[in-house]
Fold:
Amino acid sequence: MDAPASAGPGASETWAVRTARLVSLVLHPFLVCPGGIVLVLWLDQRDLAAALCWAGLCALLVVLPAAAWLLRAMRQRRYTDADVSTRDHRYGFYVFGMVCMVLSYGILLWLGAPPLLQAGFMAAMVAVLVGALANRFWTKVSIHVGAMAGIAVVAALYSLPLALVLGALALVVAWGRVVLGRHTVAQTLAGCAVALVAVLAGFLPWL
Structure:
């Protein structure tokens, strides 16, 4: 079952809705994923410049095309909002995202990207695939929550306190998505579950 539609922009907003909207913007997957790459690579290699370069390349190869696709679809009125809240609208977005990620993964292999980044990309591709299948046969999962939860799980390989902080942020994001009516509680939990499965699938060979 899909989440109910959120209140329109003309409706009066409570403090909770305003806060949830801010959380969803600041911790948007388009920002969280490159930031997570920087964080995890720095934890692994302690080379901030290299981490920023790899994250920038990944953003250029995946985030920028995805954002362009999203903006174009909204201008053409194929999507009702930037969160792609309508379940049926997500199929094309998943397919396009997977194509970008597969091509990017090939480029990372060719460039000799750090094994940790390769594992992270493999986990992300698994997450997109599982999310697409869930969207097709069950319900839409929260990408916002999944992205934050996935980074928290990977961070646990290096620092449990940091992982707990990131996990708490994932819970805040889940709260925000429910408050905005973008997802149900079950759909946010599904996002966490997809993230866990994806990280295990992507990182077990690396470990």
In short: Residues 4-11 have pLDDT under 50 and may be disordered.
